[in-house]
Amino acid sequence: MVVLKGVPALLSPELLYALARMGHGDSIVLADVNFPTSSICKCGPEEIRADGLGIPQLLEAVLKLLPLDTYVESPAAVMELVSSDRERGLQTPVWRSYQSILLEAGCSGDGPLRKPHPQEGGAGPRSPVLGW
Questions:
Q1: What is the DSSP-derived secondary structure letter of residue 11?
Q2: For tag attachment on the chain, is the N or C end more exposed, with fewer CB atoms within 10 Å?
Q3: Is the pTM of this model over 0.90?
Q4: Is 117 known to be catalytic?
């Protein structure tokens, strides 16, 4: 087995291969277990599982290897809460972790752009969508 220097050990060979093939305009979704990945990936996108890893640690590892796209307004996004979650004041403290990690990686601004929830006409996970 070959060990690459400087590559976070938690990144699988499959994920490294997918990251290596990415170019400008490509996106990667880092999603939690509640995102319907298997259903969505039946129609095209490639599913690469990272069972047991938290999104913040995976995000940090990915950003050590790939720069964020500087040619778009917001190279990272999170799924917006549905209206019922907003009304009951659901807190999303993990978003502060995402924002901190993104700021360290050079993503300026007020944090990730919020994308509409699929139940409200949008698509995407609660976790970051990154663009390169």
A1: S
A2: N
A3: no
A4: no
Q: 31, 25, 28: which is closest to 17 by C-alpha?
A: 28
Catalytic residue among 12, 24, 108, 116: 24
d(CA 36, CA 65): 26
More confident residue, 25 or 101: 101
Q: Which residue has the higher pLDDT, 36 or 57?
A: 57
What CA–CA distances, in Å, run from 126 to 25, 26, 98?
Answer: 20, 19, 11
* Per-residue pLDDT band at 67 (split at 50, 70, 90): confident
Output the pLDDT for position 132: 42
Q: Helical H runs in the chain?
A: 13-21, 37-40, 55-63, 83-87, 94-104
Structure tokens at 46: 């490639």
Q: What are the residues whose beta carbons fall under 8 Å from the beta carbon of 75, sequence distance 6 or more?
A: 68, 69, 107, 130, 131, 132
Q: What is the token pair recorded at 66?
A: 């790939």
Helices and strands (H, E) in the chain, number of each type: 5, 4
